[in-house]
């Protein structure tokens, strides 16, 4: 019996699938001249879909026709005013699709002649008119749905800079980029991914700056994706990474159109995904994750200083607890005597070794932070109060943690907020723990070994073929000006170089340093 | 090709510089001081001549046999049996030297920082990290070197600058108190380090611009020389005759630093440099061992050999040097003799035979031309 069951099961599942998924031939069949037949097919496909509206009407009191649309995706008022009204006049002509097109006052229309096209169009909010005796339908662009307004992106706020962020609608997002880069060389290639979601994806780049090989690689990787649905650009990110086992993000996700535009101008490409306010930028390097758009909107001296502050606090976020553990466990002599005495005094009551203490406090901190992100806003205040008690005076008074440890945890927490990209900050948070263990076991040597392992990993990592630590390792002198410093605008005459020999080198004319020349006076 | 990725000749020079300098500044001053006394800087300069010669020999041999490593062309030059023998000696020499470095690293870490950690743990953790680097290939090692070099150089300059108030430059004088013989004796010790440049013969086939190899290699030797000479002079003017009493004088020197009662005990910085440098050096030697062993056995991939040879490396440390005293003693005699004779002998032998080989080939070509 068992054998029978085994052989039977797959068959039955296949049958089930064939019931739920409409047969392919039905979907792919062309529109016929018989309106009733077309509507029958569509209605059978959209059984139990209460949101799909089939509206029968008569054109010019002669020919029967039907309007198909999805309620909530199309603008009903405009349908009534600009579509139904002119067509239902007495003398309206229903002889051909072109004739119909000429009678309605809508700018964007499209002729379609397949059932699958009808499905596509109405799913995108374009109502479709089907007329008896015509085997072509007319899709009319009247999409209209509720969407979030354009707001300041919360995760990437700036003091100076544009305050607009992407929204969930891809057309709005492309328009935000197009408004910044008006050249026709800004290209937006469209494709659809997702068997059920049919999500629209746009690859955007600037022709002549972006490397063609990079584009081909991106398209190849996207074409390989075969998935039920794309609900967020994170799905795509995970499917196209170079090294799927790396904790580091290999694609930059951003909500800011100005960040996307700046990257496009540097020769990178971006992927926009419908339904997600996060655009993906590639290729990136470690350093692009450490840069904020505001670096470029402030003066270069401030920009450079802040950049170095960030590099320093990156090290703090990664290493501060490990350093504390290593020094307290193995290298007490490194501290000045008075400081050592103070720390020793405060640790007198603590029952744990430094490593356990550090792990305890760091874990608590991470838990509080995660809770703070997920909890509803009404409860958020409670978490911060409890958090202040847990990592704070109460913990010290209870004898569970020493005051210096609390300080280290606090500084580490603050430091990780200095990393401008959330995805990067998360991986740094994660990597802190193994290094803490290493320094608990081997002191500073262990810490160094942890750092070396990290550097080895970063050196072998690539983002779309571009070395992750470029331009530091391998060293490229010309690109260092945007990593070690934020070079002044007038000296950034060349674009960064990623792959291939053919790259559009010059960004702007050299010698634009502002000065009062003798001739100007 | 067994290694698919490439490095630039500048990366090669930086790999050699970081690996040789970082162990050189820690160990070479006290080792060379035993013989050269105050003329240690002279000994170093004489020793560097071997480095220059080795780079020259390696580049010239690479010109004769492009895209081939020492193992491959020694077989072509000297025939199958002698070539394999030379190759075996070379590989053995590299492992031997590497186990020496690994042992030095572990002993210095244990004696200065982690006094109760087992030796095996210190060695094992380092070899494991190195094996990750070696598995990633020469390209990753080159990039690591490029990232670590500025760190090492900057931290080291910082130490030297902080030491300036403590210095007594007159300790360097008199020059050549006992004639030229002591510096020459000391230079033999220095030659162990500078002779290590023979390893570039295994890296040159993977260099994308080999025509710049000679220039960058020479620059690397001179940079190494200047770094070690600078450190030796600083230590000498700090300690004078006491210098020979310390096994790791740089670490002791770092303990002298005390500024405003706050910047104290910066030997942790030395340790950071030392771990980075030791990583570079052990990885480089480890990589060459693995690569050359794979070529010796004519394997198509070197990756499967990484972990077994790493284990062998750790065991070698125990076999060759049962304890620290024997290790120190061997630097004076057997180790120096063995290393220097191979570092001089191997390139000389190969260069001469390559020269003859080339002449014979030309003669054959000429005879053929004449007979036609």
Structure write-up:
- Chain A has 521 residues and is an alpha+beta fold.
- Chain A is built from 18 helices and 12 strands.
- The radius of gyration of chain A is 30 Å and the shape is elongated.
- The N terminus of chain A is likely disordered.
- Chain B is mainly alpha-helical and 372 residues long.
- In chain B, α1 packs antiparallel against α6, α2 runs antiparallel to α8 and α5 packs antiparallel against α10.
- In chain B, 77% of the residues lie in helices and 1% in strands.
- Chain B is built from 13 helices and 2 strands.
- In chain B, a hairpin with a 3-residue loop joins β1 and β2.
- Chain B has one domain: Amino acid/polyamine transporter I (Up-down Bundle), CATH 1.20.1740.
- Chain B starts with 8 loop residues before the first helix and ends with a helix.
- At the A-B interface, α18 of A face α4, α5 and α10 of B.
- Chain B: Keywords: Germination, Membrane, Transmembrane, Transmembrane helix, Transport.
- Chain B: It is found in: Membrane.
- Chain B: Its main location: membrane.
Question: Keyphrases for this structure?
Answer:
heterodimer, A: 521 residues, alpha+beta, five-stranded antiparallel beta sheet, 18 helices, 12 strands, 46% helix, disordered N terminus, B: 372 residues, mainly alpha, Amino acid/polyamine transporter I, 13 helices, 2 strands, 77% helix, membrane (chain B)
Indicate the topology:
The complex is a heterodimer of chains A (521) and B (372).
Chain A: H1 2-20, H2 24-28, H3 35-45, E1 52-59, E2 63-70, H4 76-87, H5 97-103, E3 109-112, H6 115-123, E4 128-131, E5 137-140, H7 170-180, E6 186-193, E7 199-206, H8 212-224, H9 233-240, E8 252-254, H10 257-265, E9 269-273, E10 279-282, H11 294-297, H12 300-329, H13 337-346, H14 354-374, H15 377-390, H16 393-397, H17 403-417, H18 422-460, E11 462-463, E12 466-467
Helix pairs in contact in A: 7-10, 12-14, 12-17, 12-18, 14-15, 14-17, 14-18
Chain B: H1 9-36, H2 40-64, H3 70-112, H4 119-136, H5 138-163, H6 181-195, H7 200-203, H8 213-239, H9 249-256, E1 258-259, E2 263-264, H10 267-296, H11 306-320, H12 324-332, H13 334-371
Antiparallel strand pairs in B: 1-2
Helix pairs in contact in B: 1-2, 1-5, 1-6, 1-8, 1-10, 2-6, 2-8, 2-13, 3-4, 3-10, 3-11, 3-13, 4-10, 4-11, 5-10, 6-13, 10-11
Family (chain B): Belongs to the amino acid-polyamine-organocation (APC) superfamily. Spore germination protein (SGP) (TC 2.A.3.9) family.
Keywords (chain B): Germination, Membrane, Transmembrane, Transmembrane helix, Transport
Protein name (chain B): Spore germination protein KB
């Amino acid at each position: 019996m068992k054998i029978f069951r085994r052989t039977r099961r797959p068959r039955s599942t296949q049958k089930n699938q064939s019931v739920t998924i409409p047969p392919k031939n039905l979907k792919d069949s062309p529109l016929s001249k018989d309106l009733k037949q077309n509507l029958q097919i569509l209605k059978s496909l959209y059984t139990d879909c209460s949101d799909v509206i089939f509206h029968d009407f008569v054109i010019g009191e002669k020919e029967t026709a039907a309007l198909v649309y999805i309620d909530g995706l199309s603008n009903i008022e405009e349908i009534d005013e600009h579509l139904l009204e002119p067509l239902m006049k007495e003398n309206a002509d229903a002889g051909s699709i072109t004739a119909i097109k000429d009678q309605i006052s809508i700018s964007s229309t499209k002729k379609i002649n397949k059932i699958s096209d009808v499905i596509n169009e109405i799913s995108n909010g374009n109502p479709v008119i089907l007329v008896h005796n015509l085997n072509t339908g007319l899709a009319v662009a009247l999409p209209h749905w509720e969407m979030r307004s354009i707001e300041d992106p919360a995760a990437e706020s700036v003091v100076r800079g544009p305050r607009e962020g992407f929204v969930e609608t891809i057309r709005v997002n492309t328009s935000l980029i197009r408004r910044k880069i008006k050249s026709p060389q800004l290209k937006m290639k469209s494709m659809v991914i997702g068997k059920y979601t049919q999500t629209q994806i746009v690859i955007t780049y600037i022709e002549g700056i972006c490397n063609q090989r990079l584009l081909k690689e991106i398209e190849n990787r996207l074409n390989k994706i075969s998935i039920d649905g794309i609900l967020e650009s994170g799905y795509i990110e995970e499917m196209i990474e170079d090294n799927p086992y790396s904790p580091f993000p290999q694609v930059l996700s951003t909500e800011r159109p100005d960040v996307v535009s700046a990257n496009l101008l540097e020769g990178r490409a971006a992927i926009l995904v419908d339904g997600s306010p996060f655009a993906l930028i590639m290729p990136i390097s470690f350093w692009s994750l450490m840069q904020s758009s505001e670096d470029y909107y402030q003066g270069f001296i401030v920009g450079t200083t802040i950049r170095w502050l960030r590099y320093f606090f990156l090290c703090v976020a990664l290493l501060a607890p490990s350093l504390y553990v290593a020094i307290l466990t193995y290298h007490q002599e490194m501290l000045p005597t008075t400081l050592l005495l103070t720390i020793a005094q405060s640790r007198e009551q603590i029952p744990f070794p430094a490593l356990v203490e550090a792990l305890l406090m760091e874990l608590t901190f991470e838990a509080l932070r995660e809770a703070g992100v997920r909890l509803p806003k009404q409860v958020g205040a409670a978490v911060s109060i409890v958090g202040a008690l847990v990592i704070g005076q109460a913990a010290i008074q209870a004898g569970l943690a020493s005051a210096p440890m609390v300080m280290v945890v606090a500084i580490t927490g603050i430091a990780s907020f200095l990393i401008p990209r959330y995805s990067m900050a998360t991986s740094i948070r994660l990597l802190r723990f193994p290094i803490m263990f290493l320094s608990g076991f081997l002191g500073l040597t262990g810490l160094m070994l942890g750092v070396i392992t990290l550097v080895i990993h970063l050196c072998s990592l690539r983002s779309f073929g571009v070395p992750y630590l470029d331009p530091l390792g391998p060293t490229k002198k010309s690109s260092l000006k945007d990593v070690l410093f934020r070079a002044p605008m007038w000296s950034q005459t060349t674009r960064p170089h990623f792959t291939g020999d053919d790259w559009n080198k010059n960004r702007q004319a050299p010698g634009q340093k502002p000065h009062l020349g003798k001739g100007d006076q | 090709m067994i290694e698919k990725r490439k490095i630039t000749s500048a990366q090669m020079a930086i790999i050699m510089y970081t690996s040789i300098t970082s162990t050189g500044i820690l160990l070479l001053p006290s080792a060379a001081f035993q013989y050269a006394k105050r003329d240690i800087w002279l000994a170093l300069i004489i020793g560097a001549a071997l480095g220059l010669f080795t780079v020259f020999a390696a580049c010239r041999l690479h010109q004769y046999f492009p895209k081939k490593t020492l193992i491959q062309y020694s077989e072509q030059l000297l025939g199958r049996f002698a070539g394999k023998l030379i190759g075996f000696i070379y590989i053995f020499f590299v492992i031997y030297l590497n186990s020496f470095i690994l042992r030095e690293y572990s002993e210095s870490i244990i004696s200065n920082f982690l006094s109760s950690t087992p030796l095996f743990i210190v060695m094992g953790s380092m070899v494991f990290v190195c094996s990750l680097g070696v598995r990633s290939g020469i390209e990753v090692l080159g990039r690591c070197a490029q990232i670590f070099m500025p760190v090492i150089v900057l931290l080291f300059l910082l130490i030297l600058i902080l030491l300036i108030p403590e210095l007594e430059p007159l300790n360097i004088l008199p020059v050549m108190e006992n004639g030229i013989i002591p510096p020459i004796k000391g230079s033999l010790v220095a030659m162990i380090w500078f002779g290590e440049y023979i390893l570039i013969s295994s890296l040159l086939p993977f260099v994308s611009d080999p025509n710049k190899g000679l220039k960058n290699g020479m620059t690397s030797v001179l940079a190494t020389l200047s770094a070690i000479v600078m450190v030796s002079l600083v230590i000498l003017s700090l300690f004078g005759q006491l210098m020979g009493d310390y096994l790791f004088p740089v670490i002791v020197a770092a303990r002298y630093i005390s500024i405003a009662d706050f910047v104290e005990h910066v030997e942790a910085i030395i340790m950071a440099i030392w771990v980075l440098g030791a990583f570079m050096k052990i990885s480089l030697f480890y990589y060459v061992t693995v690569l050359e062993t794979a070529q010796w056995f004519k394997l198509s991939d070197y990756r499967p050999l990484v972990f077994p040879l790493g284990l062998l490396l750790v065991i070698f440390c125990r076999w060759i040097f049962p304890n620290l005293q024997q290790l120190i003693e061997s630097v004076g005699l057997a180790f120096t003799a063995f290393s220097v004779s191979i570092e001089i002998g191997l390139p000389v032998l190969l260069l001469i035979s390559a020269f003859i080989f080339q002449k014979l080939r030309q003669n054959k070509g000429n005879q053929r031309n004449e007979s036609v």
